């Protein structure tokens, strides 16, 4: 079979998603765990009122993902327009996005679990338990993020070397990884806070916060500083940290109103560690 290049990547992705859907459908249809629920027993007519409720909750969630993904896509195009070593900048940016994407799966997994558990607690009218679950989820993500931040700071050069042997790219990527370490705490907390709020069916305000933070506090100022004030590539990293900190403040401001005071105090203490990572960036 001849090499398919980029088309082969698309074909492989399509195959993976189709196999995933088929296997998951077979598991739901045949799994013993799902038999008491009768998910496949009969066909039900569409419930348009239910569809309306799902759409009302789902559209803001989908837009939140779109805002985030589109930001990183636009950054790649903007980085490619920077003068001098464009290829090195793009390669370094891709290295860091790959690393942070893998690490982001940790708070995202905690967040998805918190959505399910908070939703179950709310459905049972156990609001105290829902608050407790929200607090535990956010605090757990915050503590883990301190470990991932330290991991990135201490091993930033070996991590970059896993992707390339180009010394220039390694040097640029190692610098950007420091910014990635700086926003681990705020990124993990806002991620889990957003998911916990979905358990409360609060989706519109987090979407607005994402839009303002990613585009208003991230992309637009980053573009202006990089191309009109000659602050170049590293300024995109600084704006990453700024927009994530802004988004954390608002998401957690909403979420903290739903959790117990002892968890709120813990969040405030954890956020003080931001200063440590900012200091590391300036000293490096």
Give the tags:
0% strand; 284 residues; globular; 11 helices; mainly alpha
Describe the 3D structure.
The structure is a single chain. The radius of gyration is 21 Å and the shape is globular. By secondary structure, the protein is an all-alpha fold. It has 11 helices and no strands. Residues 241-254, 256-264 and 266-284 have low confidence and may be disordered.
In short:
The chain is an all-alpha fold and 284 residues long. It is built from eleven helices and no strands.
Specify the number of helices.
11
Strand elements, count: 0
Q: Give the overall average pLDDT.
A: 78
Shape: globular
Radius of gyration: 21 Å
Give the topology:
Elements: H1 6-30, H2 48-80, H3 86-123, H4 127-154, H5 156-161, H6 167-182, H7 184-199, H8 204-228, H9 234-256, H10 261-271, H11 274-283
Helix pairs in contact: 2-3, 2-8, 3-4, 3-6, 3-7, 4-6, 4-7, 4-10, 6-9, 6-11, 7-9, 8-9
């Amino acid at each position: 079979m001849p090499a398919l290049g980029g088309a082969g990547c698309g074909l492989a992705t399509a195959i993976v998603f189709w196999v995933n859907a088929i296997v998951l459908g077979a598991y739901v249809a045949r799994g013993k765990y799902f038999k008491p629920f009768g998910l496949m027993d009969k066909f039900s007519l569409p419930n348009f009122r239910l569809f309306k409720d799902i759409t009302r909750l789902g559209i803001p969630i989908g837009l939140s993902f779109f805002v985030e993904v589109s930001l990183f896509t636009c950054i790649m195009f903007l980085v490619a327009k920077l003068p001098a070593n464009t290829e090195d900048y793009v390669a370094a940016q891709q290295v860091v996005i790959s690393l942070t994407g893998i690490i982001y799966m940790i708070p995202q997994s905690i967040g998805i679990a918190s959505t399910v558990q908070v939703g179950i607690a709310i459905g049972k009218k156990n609001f105290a338990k829902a608050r407790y679950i929200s607090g535990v989820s956010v605090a757990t993500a915050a503590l883990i993020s301190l470990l991932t931040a330290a991991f990135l700071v201490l091993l930033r050069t070996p991590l970059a070397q896993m992707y390339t042997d180009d010394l220039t790219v390694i040097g640029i990527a190692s610098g950007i990884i420091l910014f990635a370490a700086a926003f681990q705490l705020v990124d993990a907390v806002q991620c889990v806070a957003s998911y916990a709020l979905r358990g409360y069916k609060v989706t519109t305000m987090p979407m607005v916060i994402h839009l303002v933070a990613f585009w208003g506090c991230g992309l637009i100022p980053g573009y202006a500083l990089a191309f009109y004030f000659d602050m170049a590539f590293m300024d995109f990293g600084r704006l990453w940290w700024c927009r994530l900190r802004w988004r954390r403040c608002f998401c957690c401001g909403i979420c903290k109103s739903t959790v117990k005071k002892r968890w709120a105090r813990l969040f405030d203490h954890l956020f003080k560690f931001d200063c440590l990572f900012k200091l590391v960036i300036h000293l490096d």
